[in-house]
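Posting for a labmate who doesn't have an account.
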Amino acid sequence: MIRFCSRLIVNDIKKLNNIVSSVRSGCNPPHPTRSIGPIFSCNTCHLRHQSTATPPAAQADPEETDSDLKIAELPMTPLVVSVVGIMQDFGFTDTDIKKLMINQPALLKTRANLWSDTVGTLIKCGFENAEILSILEGWPKVLSIKNNDMVRRIQAWTESGLGEKLMFEVLTSNPHFLEVDHVFVSKRIKQYQLYFENKKRVGKLFRLAPNTLEENWKIIVDKLNYLNELCTDESDIVSSGVLAHSLFHIKARHEFLIRAGIYKRPSKDFNKKLSKNPKLESIVNKTDDDFVSDIAGLSRFEYDVFLEIYKEELDDDEVGYDSDDADTYKFSYKKYRK
């Protein structure tokens, strides 16, 4: 891959010089001559095959849209011209590139060689063009990541066992994950796999609750242990996105319903199928107003008063933790009848 990137950079430098010379002389920049055929995943990443053939151009809309007007107003500086040429070589359309720059102005300040390095690496590791556009728009800082670091981090994700399709979805929707050190990623995924029996649930967890990748491990364990005390099913923990909320929020919502007589704390003989408790998703994800009216059947004033009282009841040691040692903080997981 390093040799590939080196050759790519040399070719791009030559092409950039030609384009800049053309711009200075008032000529139109030459169209890319290199044809990008099917690109296969690198051996390091063991990823999917990808075809980067440029899709057929869509028919022009007779009415000029706001987006078209913005594209027309995009200043074609030497940097923009260079980036457009580089991206076209990778199979991106002129319109997609310009829309990307308009939607994410921070990209207009990034050197052309960084575009070439990053996009080339992502393509070789199996990302499709649409996914790359989403990554660049969502996290432009990805262009500053060194190629070797990028490959190591993607490799850590591919070796995690989450599944190829799910992995690409997670990284595309959360491109800032690519900035997380590969050693930390491997460790955190293994920690979750000790809890979740299904590895794919870990990937879905990151997609629905992105904070769980880097959040303090002690806080995560406290959330999971509390949910286990309520006999919460693993699939519900993932699908509801409950771990995206703070521990106080999770506890307060449940405790309010318990004291209101609406939620029954599970006993040893708890049977989920026979339970009439409200669903976890409704408890934690509704707004305060909808929660108190639809689930609790009480007033917002009563809930606000409860929150003030409940905050005073909680011990100070429930707020803020410093350790991230998985050996120190373990799950108090107990099986129950479903």
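Reply:
Got it, the structure tokens are right above this. The mean pLDDT is 79.
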